[in-house]
Amino acid sequence: MIKEIKISDYPRLVEIWESAVRNTHDFLREEDFVYYKKQLPVYFQYVTLVGFEQNNILIGFAGVAEGNLEMLFVHNDYRGTGIGKKLMAYTISDLQVRKVDVNEQNSQAVDFYKHLGFSVLYRSELDGEGKEYPVLHMEL
Hints:
Layout: E1 2-4, H1 10-24, H2 30-44, E2 48-54, E3 57-65, E4 68-74, H3 83-94, E5 99-103, H4 107-115, E6 119-124, E7 135-139
Parallel strand pairs: 4-5
Antiparallel strand pairs: 1-2, 2-3, 3-4, 5-7, 6-7
Helix pairs in contact: 1-2
């Protein structure tokens, strides 16, 4: 079930993020992992957040700003079960997502978005924080 995220959900979002990133972003340096984790509550303020709840447990979430998917994370225990597709279907239909930026080194995510119909518009050498993680800018 898709639900609106409240500030009280933020600690659970951080847990989901950590579980997902630890298992999908093996290219991320530990100091950068710590940096981004600390920044999450700041990032959350600038996006519309929606979550996916199963058995009253929040297991995935997405953040959208101005038609751009800024974040999509599913707890590692539930990865590959269709939660990401359900969140994407909702963000595309209800939040008008048409673009996504994805770490080039996260090949599973790149393939996921391509499977959903996104194509690469261009590539940036640095991520949004100026760190050396190439980003693919994709669009439906």
